Amino acid sequence: MQLDLSLGSLFQHGGVILVLLLLASLWSWVIIVERLLAFSRAEKGSERLSARIAKLVRAGQLAEARDLAGSEDSALARVLSFALNHPSREKAVLDEALERKQIEEVLALEHRLPTLGTLGSVAPYVGLFGTVLGIIRSFQSLGQGAADASGAAMVSAGIAESLVATAAGLAVAVPAVIFFNAFSRRLTILELRLASGASEVVEALTSHPRKGGANDAED
């Protein structure tokens, strides 16, 4: 019996399991594309932003430092802008406030990543479950029919078609796991950048009091 790999035949043998995997694949790619855009926005901007802002703060140019932080739309710029606009100049208070701000930025980037990780972990098992069901149906068909060459061929074709569910599960899982690990790595690096940048600016704010120049008259 010739193996039928047409889309209609695959969905007929795969049934609900294949439909679920197709929906899971679509959902995982929606998450991947959306998170790629979110991470690109959060990571963009100058690598030396914190150093430039700290230099302005030490020079007493707080207005210029705020303008520089506000000119970029990145996670680091938002954290540093929050520090520059915070009313307190006590190091302990600033550190605590900035820690909360960093957690807020990280949580925003972690959005939907657990879902992506879950899809990558569960999809192969869902595909395997569909394959097992397909094999059971194939042997049931053999038991109800004649155990001749045509029956054996029918079972072989049925098993081959049911294995598509396992392949579909892997097709969902592989990109989901790859991107989940990549996003997790990027998130760890960004956390370090946020902590380092915030620490540098807090040090400048608390170690170098604001000067009584024209720029501070605006604050």
Question: What are the main properties of this structure?
Answer:
219 residues; mainly alpha; 7 helices; rod-shaped; disordered C terminus
Q: What assembly state would you assign to the polypeptide chains in this entry?
A: single chain
The share of residues in helices is over 70%
Given the helix and strand composition, which structural class is it? mainly alpha
Q: What do the pLDDT scores average to? A: 83
What is the radius of gyration?
Answer: 28 Å
Major beta sheet summary: none
Number of DSSP helices?
7
Contiguous runs where pLDDT drops below 50 for at least 5 residues = 210-219
Q: Give the CA-CA distance, first to last residue.
A: 83 Å
SS strand fraction: under 5%
How many β-strand runs?
A: 0
What does this protein structure show overall?
The chain has 219 residues and is mainly α. It has one domain. The protein has 7 helices and no strands. The protein has helices at residues 7-43, 49-58, 62-70, 75-84, 91-110, 113-144, 149-207. α2 (49-58) packs antiparallel against α3. It starts with 6 loop residues before the first helix and ends in a 12-residue tail after the last helix.
